């Protein structure tokens, strides 16, 4: 087996919460997360707001310093300070944002926005070569050459997201971190963008870390999926396995909660409804942090923070000893 | 205060009747029509879902009903709530109707609630204003209203400010306020879009139960076909400021007659079924309301467009309580 492209080892990101005289407990946005991503693979990280998925994405790109733990790219720590090492890393790992219009400079025409990463990271390219690369990448993301002279506000949301993807791909990165890339798009456009990402992956073999709150979107793009809750990973495994045979009670509740576009099943299917609200990330519950909302919780859950244990031969792992012990499937 | 409604024996008298509603805006580049002639009714105890993508005009429809359209908008047509015409009423009369007879729940409860006032102050204000309750009666009614939306620890919540509540709890407060005066019609504009999916499931459950308990008619506006499937009895699919298909939700979802409805249903990413390949999207993008194409507005994106589509199709009944604005559906000879 080849070495993974990306490795995250027990990463923690704690934000100081201020406080005067006495420091308030820090917000534990990411609190001990490990993952691996192989070349050409797409790993989705899903969870609801406050689960730490976006902070994790920023940490992977070196945009957020870790409190402890490590992020390794090609076996070397990701540089989290400006400098030549960071610049070299930035060529290889790029970000696609949620809001494509906000991510583009409103005063820069689209061709200039696309040429900018090349000017920064590949200054040796002469102007004609640069322009050729811009034309190339526009065609790759399915945009008309005529769009190059427009400003971001003159294109639709779907077109702007294609520009955002083009801007990330123009440096021919090895890793694409996509932070909710279709969340702000209309459903008819979402499907177009998902197909584009799949085509780019097939053509260039780029690896993707795909951050999303939407399990049904994830199913259409990822090879593997990791489910996060309150800064920790609850379950990880191949998409078909995790969505088809979800084990962690939180994963099951998350899948149950998605309304299906089919009136007959939607009105009759049984579902687990989670009660209550997300606990504060500055004071997560002891032991398993999902236990306060968990239908399977028992006394022992408060004592020990559960670690991942294998739940199948395909790399499916779950951090819930109760499910593994009892085989309980509610 | 409430007009004595005749105890009619007619079945399903419409609570809301909207005819040829049009909303246009004067812009620097000429007038833009955001809503281009919309007809629908909502009957007592029923949930009508209006679904559409951004720019389809669904929010403008919802705002125009009770005089909430932006000041630069021109609203024409007819809106009747329990027989009373709302368009053309003055602001004073409208504000008596809003809250008491037609109540709104908006997408973002944080901006819809006043951050400076406690939940109790905001909730009792509605009751005192519309029902003339005194302080003590209003307080008791406010606690009952919070209980009804399954708010844990209702009495204590009265002293909290909106920022002290989670998103789901804030939306419960909004729903409690909206239902406090037992309105004839609840207008819910993307009520769960800003919420996480597990909280969304709680709120959808709540709306469904409240509808059964109170019999309030609901006009639900959403972009999410799953939410429509969960809550609506009937659905109206909007595109470019028009209703392109309407009917009972099961029938429309089972066998959509408009190619846009079919495309929308196919584009929804699904958790089950299929092989995991991305859903088929709809090519192109929704039209700019400033430059609508001639004829059927969906024709440029429609794989089944033909010569007749150069003429604008009208919404025409096709039986079974359904209506479709598509030449394919109303073409006499062959169907589909």
Features:
heterodimer, A: 330 residues, 8-stranded mixed β-sheet, 12 strands, 32% helix, globular, B: alpha/beta, 12 helices, 24% strand, disordered N terminus
Structure characterization notes:
The complex is a heterodimer of chains A (330) and B (336). In chain A, helix 3 packs across helix 4 and helix 5 packs parallel to helix 6. In chain A, the strands form two sheets. In chain A, strands 6-7-8-3-9-10-12-11 form an eight-stranded mixed sheet, with helices on both faces. Chain A has a four-stranded antiparallel sheet with strand order 2-1-4-5, with helices on one face. The radius of gyration of chain A is 21 Å and the shape is globular. Helix content of chain A is 32%, strand content 20%. With 330 residues, chain A is of the alpha/beta class. Residues 1-10 of chain B have low confidence and may be disordered. In chain B, helix 4 (119-131) packs across helix 5 (135-148) and helix 5 packs across helix 7 (167-179). Chain B is α/β, with parallel strands linked by helices. Helices cover 32% and strands 24% of the residues of chain B.
Write a short abstract of this structure.
The complex is a heterodimer of chains A (330) and B (336). Chain A has 330 residues and is α/β, with parallel strands linked by helices.
């Amino acid at each position: 087996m080849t070495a993974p492209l990306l490795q995250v080892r027990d990463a923690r990101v704690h934000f100081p919460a201020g406080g005067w005289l006495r420091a308030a407990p820090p917000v534990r946005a990411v609190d001990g997360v490990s993952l691996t991503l192989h070349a050409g693979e797409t790993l989705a990280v899903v969870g609801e707001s406050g689960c730490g998925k976006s902070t994790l994405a920023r940490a992977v790109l070196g945009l957020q310093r870790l409190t402890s733990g490590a992020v390794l790219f090609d076996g070397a720590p990701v540089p989290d300070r400006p400098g030549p090492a960071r610049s070299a890393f930035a060529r290889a790992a790029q970000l696609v944002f949620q809001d494509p219009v906000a991510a583009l400079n409103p005063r820069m025409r689209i061709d200039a926005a696309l040429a900018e990463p090349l000017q920064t990271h590949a200054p040796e390219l002469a102007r004609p070569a640069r322009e050729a690369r811009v034309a190339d990448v526009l065609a790759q993301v399915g945009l008309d050459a005529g769009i190059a002279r427009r400003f971001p506000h003159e294109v639709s949301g779907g077109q702007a997201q294609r520009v955002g993807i083009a801007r990330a791909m123009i440096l021919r990165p090895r890793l694409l971190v996509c932070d909710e890339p279709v969340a702000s798009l209309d459903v008819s456009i979402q499907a177009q963008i998902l197909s584009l990402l799949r085509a780019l992956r097939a053509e260039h073999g780029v690896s993707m870390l795909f951050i999303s709150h939407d399990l049904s979107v994830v199913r259409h793009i990822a090879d593997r999926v990791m489910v996060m809750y309150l800064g920790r990973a609850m379950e990880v495994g191949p998409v078909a396995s995790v969505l088809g045979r979800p084990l962690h009670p939180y994963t099951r509740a998350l899948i149950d909660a998605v309304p299906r576009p089919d009136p007959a099943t939607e009105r009759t299917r049984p579902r687990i409804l989670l009660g209550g609200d997300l606990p504060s990330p500055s004071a997560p519950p002891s032991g398993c942090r999902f236990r306060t909302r968990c239908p399977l919780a028992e006394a022992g859950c408060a004592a020990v923070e559960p670690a991942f244990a294998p739940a199948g031969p395909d790399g499916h792992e779950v951090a819930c000893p109760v499910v593994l012990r009892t085989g309980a499937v509610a | 205060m409430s007009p004595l409604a005749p105890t009619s024996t007619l079945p399903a008298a419409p609570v809301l009747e909207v005819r040829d509603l049009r909303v246009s805006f004067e812009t620097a580049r000429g007038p833009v029509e955001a809503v281009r002639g919309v007809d629908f009714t909502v009957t007592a105890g029923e949930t009508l879902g209006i679904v559409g993508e951004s720019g389809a005009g669904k929010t403008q429809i919802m705002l125009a009903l009770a005089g909430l359209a932006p000041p630069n908008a021109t609203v024409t047509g007819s809106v009747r709530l329990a027989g009373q015409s709302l368009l053309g009423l003055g602001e004073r009369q409208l504000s008596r109707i809003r809250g008491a007879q037609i109540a709104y729940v908006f997408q973002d409860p944080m901006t819809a609630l006043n951050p400076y006032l406690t939940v109790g102050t905001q909730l009792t204000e509605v009751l005192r204003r519309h029902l003339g309750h005194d302080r003590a009666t209003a307080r008791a009614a406010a606690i009952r209203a919070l209980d009804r939306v399954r708010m844990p620890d209702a009495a204590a919540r009265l002293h909290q400010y909106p920022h002290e509540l989670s998103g789901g709890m804030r939306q419960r407060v909004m729903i409690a306020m909206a239902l406090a005066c037992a309105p004839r019609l609840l207008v819910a504009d993307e009520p769960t879009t800003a919420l996480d999916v597990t909280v969304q499931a709680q709120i959808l459950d709540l709306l469904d139960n409240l509808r059964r308990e109170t019999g309030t008619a609901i006009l639900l506006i959403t972009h999410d076909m799953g939410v429509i499937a969960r809550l609506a009895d009937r659905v109206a699919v909007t595109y470019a400021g028009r209703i392109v298909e309407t009917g009972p939700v099961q029938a429309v979802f089972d066998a959509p007659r408009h190619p846009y409805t079919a495309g929308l249903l196919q584009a929804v990413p699904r958790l089950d079924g299929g092989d995991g390949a991305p859903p088929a999207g709809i090519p192109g993008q929704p039209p700019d309301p400033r430059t609508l194409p001639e004829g059927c507005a969906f024709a440029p994106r429609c794989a089944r467009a033909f010569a007749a589509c150069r003429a604008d199709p009208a919404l025409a009944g096709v039986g079974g309580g359904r209506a479709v604005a598509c030449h394919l559906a109303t073409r006499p000879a062959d169907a589909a």
